[in-house]
């Protein structure tokens, strides 16, 4: 009898052990599959979404960088434009894609600003997406009308405080980079400035040239030719160093305002929970692309200061940007929905 009980106990132990082993194997199989998938990345084409229309600088830069990335990783990189809602349509698509390294997103500074401007978003830019690598910073040129007396940033601030009714700044629309740059400058100098929104930068230029608006912040590509032609006055560039195409224009720090550095940026993101190994590999490859001399030369031609860098650095920067612009937006009382 005792022998039978011992036999039954031994049989039960074997069954329990077998169940535990089977359970462990079941848990291990997905992990093993994910590890193999990560090690084999990329084994098929990579999709990169540009949430802006084709033909713009963001699109051109993305195609330049992704062509070089494809050469390095040995797989096609397919660029897909999904414009709309200030970049939120394409961003939402990638945020909800599988976190497997085969869906990426290229964004500009609006990515970090949108949460402050829009109450309702279908995704969280910080929680649902993660930084892979920054391509570069996009400095702005601060220009004033050549019809106005000030010839430096400090002179402009003094003049603006003495003539508050004439201290206006133009932008390409409410919530645009030029709008927020002007608000940051106003808050940083303690000077009252009236925002004049236009439907794009082009309609604002005649009024800037004629002196109907005093100031605008815009890309070096647009403003340097106008400044060289004497139509506007370049006061400063929002970059840590002077721009090669405008070496006589001081940086904002040199102009006396080191804490007022509004600029945009462009970089690559991936869905959150993308395996760290894939993120790190992508980051390293993109960093190598951005630091290639031929790519750097073309980025500068596009008005972009090449950066590169690691994924965690870029993600930390995005979080800092979101906080900085949230403060500006709140103080200015800007809401778009």
From TrEMBL:
Keyword Signal applies: yes
Entry-linked Pfam families: TctC
Superkingdom of source: Bacteria
Alphabetized UniProt keyword annotations: Receptor, Signal
InterPro entries: BUG, Bug_dom1
Signal peptide: 1-33
PANTHER family: BLR1237 PROTEIN, TRICARBOXYLATE-BINDING PROTEIN
Homology family: Belongs to the UPF0065 (bug) family.
Protein name: Extra-cytoplasmic Solute Receptor
Species annotation: Cupriavidus metallidurans (strain ATCC 43123 / DSM 2839 / NBRC 102507 / CH34) (Ralstonia metallidurans)
